[in-house]
Amino acid sequence: MPKFITIGYGDRAGYERTPQPVKDAAHAHDARLVSHGALIGIAGAPVQVRNPDAAGVETCDGPFMSSGLPVAGFAVIEAASLEEAIEKVSHVPCAVAHGVVEVWPLK
Question: For residue 66, what pLDDT is reported?
Answer without folding.
Answer: 92
